[in-house]
Every structure is written in C-alpha cells, then in structure tokens.
Design brief:
Radius of gyration: 29 Å
Strand content: 5-15%
CATH topology of the largest domain: Multidrug efflux transporter AcrB transmembrane fold
Helix content: 55-70%
Shape: globular
CATH architecture of the largest domain: Up-down Bundle
Oligomer: single chain
Structural class: alpha+beta
Number of strands: 15
Largest sheet: 4 strands, antiparallel
C-alpha cells in the first residue's frame, strides 16, 4: 500500500480536482447555459410549475374503456416530456394533462392533439421508414377501432394466444387491400417509432376484423393489444383551456428542503467523524463528491425532480454512507484482531466488497425492473435510485480507498486514528426468535384489523389522497394576485376550516389572479361554505364566477397495476440473484419474506396513523423494497463467510448469533445515518416532505429490526440449522481469529 512520491502527488491532485471540479460544475455547470449544474435540473410541477391543459371529449356517452385508453395514450405521450407528468379525468367528459418544466403550451397542444402514431407498413414502407425517408403507411391508428387479447383453447393439445383487431369501415377496406397486396409477406406494426409486431399475412382478410395469432403468451398478446388501443384513440379531444401554471409550492418549500439537507448532512458528517475518526473524515470527503456528482448526473440525464424526488436524493445521501460503514467496521475489526493498520485497510476493503456489491446489485436489479415495467413517477424514481446506487458504489469502493491510502501514506498510521473492535460479547439473538415472530405478526395483524375497522366504519381502509381517489376542483378569479406563500398560509387554512377538510392542493395560473384548489370530494354544503368563507375574506373579480368540477385520480389504474407488477417482478429477480450468489434457496426466501415484512409494517403505520396515501406512498414503498435488503445481505454475507470455516460439529446457532453480533454495530450505525437524514427532513421539511419522511423512518427501523431479529432466524428455521449441530445452549465466547472472523 506504499505510494511513491509521484503517486501521492498524482492521486492527491485527482482527488482535489474531483472535489473542486464537481463542486464547481454542480454550482455553475459546464457551459454558458449552465448544463450539468443544480440550477439546470428539470423541476416538477410542484417546484417549477409547467403547463396544464384540459381537453373535452366530443363524443356523447364515451365508454369507460375508451376514456381509460385515452388517458393511457396521453400518459405514453407525455412520458417523453417528463416522467412526473400527470393525466387524469376532470368531470365526466374532460381530461386534464399536467406537464412540469415546460412553458410552450402551443407546442404541447399540437403534439398531444394528434390521434396517435400507430402505423401498419409493408416491406417497402418499412424500409423507407427505417432509413428516415418518406413513405405512405397502409393504415394508421385512426383506422383501428379496437384490439383485445384472447386465449384459444379449442385445440385439445395446445393453447394459443393472440390479438383480435377491429377496424373502422374505412380501415376495413384499407386492411383488406393491404392483405391482398402483401399475401405471404410481413406487415410491420409501428408504434411511436418502434416495431411492436410483424405478423405474416396468411390470407386476404375482409369483414373489418383480423387476428394476430401464435403469440408466445397471453401477457405478450395483452401488451400488444394495449399498444394498439392507445395508438388508436376512438375519442376526439378538443382543447378547452391551457395555462402556464406556477409552482404548486412556494420557494419556502425548496428552501426548507435544502436547509434540511444541509443540517442532516452536517450532523451525519459529525457522527461519522466521531464514530470512525479518520475513516469518518474520508467518508465526509466521499459524501461531498457523491452529492455533487449525483446533482450533475440528474441534470445531465434530464431527470425531472419533484419535491418527493428531492427528498429521495437527500435520503440517498444517508444511504450512500452505508457502504462506508460496512468497510470501516471491517477495518476496525481487523485492527481489533491485532493486524497492522496497513493490512487492516487492505483486508477491510477486500472483505467488505462482496457484501457491498451483492447488496447494491440486488437493489440495482429492483431499480432496473421498476424502470422497465413502471410508468410515470415510477420510472423517475427508478432512475434516481439506480443513479444513487452506481455513484455510491463508485465513491465507496474506489474514491474512499484512494483517499484512505493517501492519508496513510501521508503519515497517519497510528491505530488510534482508526479505532478497533473486538467482539467479546455474544447475544443469543436466535433465542428470542419466537417472540420476534409473534411480535411482528401482531403488528401486521393490527394493520389489517385497523384497515377492516376503518372500512366498516364507512371510511377508507387507507387515507387515500387526491392522487388516488380524485376529488373536487374549485377555481377562483380574485381581484388581486396572491403569492404562493399567501395562498398556502392565508387562503388554504380558510378553505380547510370552512369545509372541514385537511387536504387542499393549489395550482396558480402564472401571472394571473386565477387559482384552482383541489380538495377531497365536497358536498354541496361544503362547497358553499368554503366559497362564502373565501370570497368574504378574499374578494373575487367582478363578473367572474366560482367554478367547481369533479376530478378523477391522477394515479391511473395503469400506473397502479404497473407498480404492483414491477414490485413483484423485482422481488422475484432479487430472490433469484440471492439464490445464485449464496447458492442456497433458504437465504433467498428468508430475505424476500423479511422484505415483505418491512413493507407490511410500514403499511400498518400508514393505516393506523392515517398518513396520506398519494404518489409519495408508491415512492416510499419502492424505497423500502430497495433499501431494506441491504442490511440483510450484510448479515447473510457474514454467515456465508463463517460457514466456509465451519465443520459438521459447528453449532449453527452460535454461528448465526456470532454473524449478527459481529455486524450489529454496522447495522445500527447504517440505519442511524439514514434515520438522521430522514429526521432532518421531518423536522424542517414542509408537509408533503414530512408525509414522505415519517413512514420511511418507520421503514428504516423495521428494516434494521427484521435484519437482526427475523431474517437470519428464518434462514435457521428453514433448515440452516442442519448445516451443523442442532441448536443448543450457546457455548463459551468465541475467540477472535487473526482475520477478525469468529471461530
């Protein structure tokens, strides 16, 4: 680990360049436009405002399926503008689209107003399309009336899947001609610039219906049917209003969030330095680089940042410390085992790498699945999560190693600067497993009983917010323009008190006296009471009227479904990865059950504490799925390490207790660092941030508890005990070997 003078100079210059360079880029950017800077980050509707467009459906009595397909189509459209866009029904025949970070309403209107870019191409048209040349499609989305997946069980030996297409009258004629002209050839179906299917024409098809057959699964057929349906909206939309709206939250929200981040970061750094001494200083420098680099990449990759997203990045700062805690705990163990500081640093990084990589890759798999199968905010969350994981691994395994070696080479070699850990006590964690199982079951059961009781009492099982259940919009045109702070601090409290409600969201038209308030469903009496109270204190413009309407949920059924599917697939992928890495299905099953345990504990908290369940609920649950697995992986990694030196006579209960005990300080410190950031957000953040931070604080505590008391015990109960002697009374204290492992 000895560096030559030249290496010390080169590495020192590199680290200083990263510290100063990344900081300057995060502040000022890399060009005159400020690209890559924090101020160039795309902000969501709540932080920066954007465009709000309302369409009216021209057809009479549109079906619910047509409306759902139209919303899904528009959601697909606006994803390209921002992952945080919202599309929701407003009244019986209106649909509202909200896109953050854009101001050119006319350009948005022109793009969204098109019926869809679904096209059917022959081989000539496909070749021209692929080369960017002009072509004439055989059919377009407007020629398709509907598409439905089906399962064919008519054969006694095989089951086949397909998609049934229905064309308009004009589309039927076009399709008949197309199949006649391309008999035996392929017709390419292209949606928004991507080929989604390429069936071969086997016969001339007339009558206005056709089938795409021999698909590999019903899911594949259903996905194709969805794409075709949303590319062929049967409804005609007419724009009735478009506004450039101001940020839903004032500057105070952003300022308090940054203040919370600063306070949390300072406390976090102090804690790391006090707890780990010189390695804590290293972690502080690495954290500096991590924070600046994440801000730069969020800007470069155009990730739209909402207030919960901002809270998520701040949370990521706390999570980034986790890898450092793992490494530094290992270094202290090695020093405690009698090794030199130099060899301890080397061994600490080597032994911690597998646990860090396994934990982060497991979470990265979850992020990848969420991005592939998720929609809207789920994609944005997945991108932020993946970004934080990659950067934290880089800073923990590469940057801190270089800085640590530099400090050592500059003469900081005394063990007192690094600390030491000697494992002399052993707690019988497995001995209390039954009580832990019972306690967890009682807590989770209480959540389900509470939800059932609330539902029986005429309330919702969970306290769903406007994003999930919709509500009422009321628009006032005041005599004067009010600031965001005045609306938040003066007008909204009047509405809450008069209508007897708690949840009120506001949306102000930029440079205008018009303000729209979104609330839960209001009765006629509540509307009148709120209107009278507001207009008495804040007079409206002469000649204007107070407009009220009913809106649907902005979290669509498609988004809910994709969230559930994403979590299920992510969980299965994590289970598979853990099984492959640990070569033991018991590890995988125990980890996944503990993950479900943590999610259900947080769900119980949401239910009993009546915390608002909105878009932050999805982000919160996804965060727990990605985060709670880390502590479990660390303990499993230590069990795996100790098993390598075990024999048939090894008492597995002692081994598991030793593994938990050896990693307990790391589990506690890692959870505490994340908790510190969340506590800062809760104390100093605005209401929406608090509603995000509080359940996550519960999730962090639940994750630490399950890792220590549940997961390893599950592995043991599932059959881990069979690897050695059956459970017996804990034996004498294990001695500490030279490499720091317990024997």
């Amino acid at each position: 680990m000895k560096y030559s003078k030249a290496k010390k100079i080169v590495y020192s210059v590199i680290i200083l360049a990263m510290l100063i360079g990344f900081t300057l880029i995060a502040i000022f950017g890399i060009d005159e436009n400020g690209s890559g800077s924090a101020k160039d980050i795309d902000l969501g509707l709540d932080l920066a405002g954007g465009v709000s467009i309302t369409y009216e459906i021209q057809e009479d009595n549109p079906s619910s399926q047509d409306i759902k397909d139209t919303i899904a189509k528009l959601e697909k459209r606006v994803e390209g503008k921002s992952t945080e866009s919202q599309v929701y029904p407003a009244g019986e025949k209106r649909i509202t689209v909200e896109i953050p970070g854009v101001t050119d309403a006319n350009a948005i209107l022109e793009e969204l107003g098109t019926p869809g870019s679904l096209e059917f191409l022959d081989s000539t048209g496909y070749q021209a399309w692929s080369q960017g040349e002009d072509y004439t499609p055989l059919l377009t989305g407007s020629d398709v009336q509907g598409a439905q997946a089906y399962t064919d069980t008519s054969s006694s030996t095989t089951t086949s899947f397909g998609v049934q297409l229905t064309f308009t009258d004009e589309g039927a004629e076009k399709f008949e001609q197309a199949t006649e002209d391309n008999l035996g050839s392929i017709i390419y179906i292209v949606y928004d610039g991507q080929v989604i299917s390429y069936p071969t024409v086997e016969a001339v098809i007339s009558g206005g219906t056709a089938s795409i057959t021999n698909m590999e699964s019903f899911e594949a057929a259903d996905n194709l049917a969805v794409f075709i349906r949303i590319g062929s909206i049967p409804l005609t939309l007419n724009e009735v209003s478009s506004n450039v709206v101001a940020a839903q939250l004032g500057h105070n929200a952003i300022q308090t969030s940054f203040f919370a981040a600063a306070v949390g970061l300072i406390v976090l750094c102090i804690f790391m330095i006090v707890s780990y001494r010189m390695p804590g200083v290293v972690a502080t420098l690495a954290l500096w680089i991590y924070t600046a680099l994440v801000l730069i990449l969020v800007s470069v990759y155009d990730i739209t940042l909402t207030l919960p997203g901002l809270a998520g990045i701040i949370l990521g700062i706390g999570m980034a410390v986790d890898a450092n805690v793992v490494i530094y705990s290992r270094i202290r163990e090695e020093i405690g085992a009698g090794r030199s500081v130099e060899s301890s640093i080397q061994a600490g990084y080597e032994k911690a790498t597998s646990a860090i990589v396994d934990g982060n890759i497991t979470t990265l798999i979850a992020a990848a699945v969420l991005y592939i199968f998720g929609t809207g905010p789920i994609k944005g969350f997945a991108m932020t999560l993946a970004l934080g994981i990659v950067v934290s691994m880089f800073t923990a395994l590469v940057i801190t190693r270089v800085i640590m070696k530099l400090f050592y080479n500059f003469g900081i070699t005394d063990p007192k600067w690094y600390g030491k850990t000697v494992h002399v006590r052993k707690v019988n964690f497995l001995g209390i497993r039954k009580w832990c199982f019972i306690g967890s079951a009682i807590v989770i059961l209480a959540g389900f009983v509470g939800m059932f009781a609330f539902n029986a009492a005429g309330k919702r099982a969970l306290n769903y917010s406007l994003e999930f259940v919709g509500g009422t919009t009321t628009t006032y045109t005041f005599q004067q323009e009010y600031s965001q702070e005045q609306i938040e601090n003066e007008i909204i409290p009047v509405i809450r008190e008069a209508a007897g409600i708690t949840e009120v969201q506001q949306q102000k038209v930029k440079d205008s006296t018009k303000v729209t308030f979104k609330t839960t469903d209001l009765s006629l009496e509540q509307r009148q009471a709120a209107e009278e109270a507001v207009t008495a204190k804040f007079p409206i413009e002469e000649g204007s009227i107070v407009e009220s309407d009913t809106i649907g949920s902005s979290v669509s059924a498609t988004m809910k479904q994709s969230a559930i599917i994403s979590v299920v697939i992510a969980t299965l992928c994590m289970l598979l990865y853990i099984f492959i890495r640990f070569r033991d299905i018991k590890f995988a099953l125990a980890a996944v059950i503990a993950l479900v345990h943590d999610v259900l504990v947080v769900l119980t908290f949401y239910a009993l504490a009546r915390i608002s369940v909105g878009t932050t609920f999805i982000a919160c649950m996804l965060t727990i799925v990605g985060y709670s697995i880390n502590s479990t992986i660390i303990i499993f990694d230590r069990i795996r390490e100790l098993l390598k030196t075990s024999t048939k006579k090894t008492n597995i209960a002692d081994l598991v207790n030793a593994a938990i005990g050896n990693t307990f300080t790391r589990t506690f410190n890692s959870s505490l660092t994340t908790f510190i950031m969340l506590l800062s957000l809760f104390i100093f953040g605005v209401t929406s941030v608090r509603e995000f931070a509080l359940p996550l604080m519960v999730g962090v505590v639940a994750g630490a508890y399950s890792s220590v008391c549940i997961t390893s015990a599950l592995w043991y109960v599932f059959g881990g005990r069979k690897k050695g002697l059956q459970e017996a009374e804990p034996k004498k204290e294990p001695s500490v070997a030279e490499d720091g492992a317990q024997l």
